[in-house]
Amino acid sequence: RLSCVRNNVWLACCGVVSAGLAVLSSFGLMLFCGVPFVVTVANAPFLILGVGVDDMFIMIASWEQSSRKKKKSDVRALLAETYSEAALSVTITTLTDVLAFFIGTWTAFPSVRSFCLYTGTAFVFCYLYTLTFFGAVIVLNHKREQGNRHWLTCMPVGVDEADKSCLYNACCVGSCSRQSSQLEELDSEHPMSRFFKKYYGPFFTNTWIKALVVLLYAAYLGGSIYGCTQVREGIDLRNLASDDSYVIPYYDDNEKYFSEYGPRVMVVITESVEYWNETVRLGIEKCMQNLE
């Protein structure tokens, strides 16, 4: 927002903080329960941040739409309308992510299991903080706007000061509640919403564009099916090491010079054996020859 009152920078920052709280809560709970912390878990905060910011945008957009339908003084009705619009989308998004990662805990790899446990639990906390902590922050931000307070300092600002410079008026003068209904309606609608409603939507509802979208999707679907047929099970261990690691030339040389012999097979004798007995040694040798 260009208005120093309607600007929601702190609201966006609190949305990021909400995702960070989810990460801290998840990591703390999993460490308290004794779940091993592996290196791959360090990537989980980026996933939580993406979903948390997405939920934040859904909540803010629903609040903006609700504020145009109902009286801005009725905060309970605004928040109820916001949750009725946003909670379904946020719930479905979180539910699918949580199911995907908790299903991943069935794997036989301990590192993947730990990663899925940490990330899936973080998604649950992200959902809880979005519907509780961030909802409360939205209400506090609404009260700040109704009080005609600056977005940065939260101090009351003037409505109109003609004797000040243009820069001062742009940064320190604003109003939220004293605008006319027409100007308020235009200001409350975000420019991105107007773009999708007036340009993006009509463009994609054109008959030729819809046909083109169907063709592009068919091509994408065909390419995806072909790609699935080319997928091979397994993992190349050299991709897990850094580019300058000694592991990469080791696997390159092993594949180049020793791959035709196959894997090495070792025989382990777990019982106590009289190796000094020549008969026993011949028996072991004969067993090795049979295995070969």
From TrEMBL:
Membrane-topology descriptor: Multi-pass membrane protein
Pfam families: Patched (PF02460)
Keyword annotations of the record: Glycoprotein, Membrane, Transmembrane, Transmembrane helix
Family matches, as SUPFAM superfamilies: Multidrug efflux transporter AcrB transmembrane domain
CC terms in the record's Gene Ontology section: membrane
Localization per Swiss-Prot or TrEMBL: Membrane
Residues spanning the membrane: 9-38, 44-63, 86-109, 115-140, 199-220
Domain annotation SSD: ranges: 1-140
Domain of life: Eukaryota
InterPro entries in the record: Patched_domain-protein (IPR051697), PTHD_SSD (IPR003392), SSD (IPR000731)
Classification via PANTHER family: PATCHED DOMAIN-CONTAINING PROTEIN 3 (PTHR10796:SF60), PATCHED-RELATED (PTHR10796)
Membership in a protein family: Belongs to the patched family.
Stated name of the protein: PTHD3 protein
